[in-house]
Design goal:
The longest helix is centred in the N-terminal third of the chain and has 25 residues, at about 1-25. The protein has a domain at about 30-85: 434 Repressor (Amino-terminal Domain), CATH 1.10.260. It is built from five helices and no strands. By secondary structure, the chain is an all-alpha fold. It has helices at about 1-25, 30-35, 40-50, 55-65, 70-80.
Length: about 90
Amino acid sequence: MQDNYEKAKQKLKSALAEIVQLHRKSKNKSISRISAEIMMTKSMWTDLEKGIKDPQLSTLWRVAEALDMNLDDLIKEIREKLGDDFTLVD
């Protein structure tokens, strides 16, 4: 069960990473610029885009704002990418 949770969690982080990177690039913003805009370290943003970080809700909110998105829209995109059958609960 723990292994399934870890795999699902990584899938979630990867989906977030892909969406965040796509939106950042569509805004033509560098990692340096966008991370500075929300007072986040460059390394933290990089880890987010690599699927390493599992951000807190407050961080996720700031990320959405930096991408000129509502948090709801960011979450909706993640859900669409993961599919209806995705779950973190086994």
